[in-house]
Amino acid sequence: MGLIAGTVVLALSGLLCGSFLNVCILRIPAGESVVTVPSHCPGCDRRLRPPELIPVLSWISLRSRCRGCGARISAQYPLVEAANAALWVLAAVFRGFTAFLPLECAVLSALLGLSVIDARTREIPPVFNVFIGVCGILRIAVALISPETGVRGVGDAAPYIVGAVAVSVPLGIVYLASGGRAIGGGDLKLLAACGLFLGWRLVVLGFFAGCVLGAAIHLARMRISGAERALALGPYLSAGMALAMLLGERAISWYLGLIGR
Ligand SMILES: [Zn+2]
Known about the structure:
By secondary structure, this protein is mainly alpha-helical.
């Protein structure tokens, strides 16, 4: 399969999985099943027909309204679908078509989903952190069996196991010392799961990138719209982790080159 064909297939799969991600975003915080109940309009419960399940296009063709009850359909749906497809294509562009790509795409989708939920509800559902942690374990397994990585032994899993505790444990102490006010328990589990997936170097980098992004964007929002002082950290941490996954290795090599190592 050519590179362009591969990228097109990846983008289309990203749209479809983005559609499923919308279902997760809507139902997981409400405690509903994401598989047994067919897709329906949240306004009138009308079951969606196949053409209405096509990502992005259906939202545009319906002019963002339900055909049954005329209720507005949130722009969140096409935006999540498009963002998911974009993240998957970026993963292929920056990380290449390797054996790790499916896991990298899965983690990027989970980061996107938990960000939207955290921004709305101030909670990261535990299932997202468990999912990322499982992807981390699978990533280590793939590294150990895949010839393309040149990994030699179980000892090569060490950076990932260190990654799981590198940021989460120091911040866990801050969490305990502050009585849970400085950082949330869900954020800590997110940092542990991402550390297991990314390894210690990238999770440290991603954490700092997330903090810088969070501080900059949140200060701007407080100035412009008078947003509240308390912020949901999940979206910023997730953005930092996604940046670290996509660009971290390049940033580290660039920096090492700069200081002459
Ligand atoms: Zn409806």
